[in-house]
Amino acid sequence: MAEEAKGANGAASPAQQAAPPKMQIISQFVRDLSFENIAAQKGTTPEGKPEVKVQVNLDAKKRSETNYEVGLKIRIDSRVGDAPLFLLELDYAGRFNIENVPNEQLHPLLLIEGPRLIFPFVRRVISDVTRDGGYPPINLDTIDFLALYRQQLARRREAQQGETEATPQQT
């Protein structure tokens, strides 16, 4: 039966030769971490419910033929009214081995699946740091990286359209 899948010349069929896509985490690490406990430094304890703002940024870089680095940057600013409590900035990265992925699918794979795979570790670091800083641990909600990717593409399109409209056309 195995011989039936081979062609007339004994070579494997194209379906057998095409290797499946592969994405594997090689390593992950904290590139940079900053926790500024502003309220403690000032010796103040603001009263009231804190407001927490979270910003997320992504980046990806090719490191070698099949190795890529995906960065997930989180900035958390917590304050009560105008009084700052703390500022947390985390730059977390994952290195991935990616094989057999078409070029047109590589960008979304890196910026959607890469962050999705390292996010649980980012969440844990943030929770531990805020708890160790004397605050209730911040447990980030799951981030929809697909929606974030689509928003980023839409912003790029708008910026490109704005540049095109601002550039005078030569006739």
Instruction: Estimate the mean pLDDT confidence.
Output: 88
How many angstroms separate the termini?
67 Å
Question: What's the CATH superfamily, by name?
Answer: SecB-like
In the residues, how many domains can be counted? 1
Strand order of the largest sheet: 1-4-3-2
- Rg over C-alpha atoms, rounded to the nearest angstrom: 23 Å
The total of helices stands at 4
Per DSSP E runs of 2 or more residues, the count of β-strands stands at: 4
Helix-strand string: HEHEEEHH
What name does the CATH topology carry?
A: Bacterial Protein-export protein SecB
Range of helix content: 25-40%
Share in β-strands: 25-35%
Q: What would CATH call the class?
A: Alpha Beta
CATH architecture: Roll
Which descriptor suits the 3D outline? globular
Q: What's the story with the biggest beta sheet?
A: 4 strands, antiparallel
List unreliable stretches of 5+ residues.
1-7
Structural class: alpha+beta
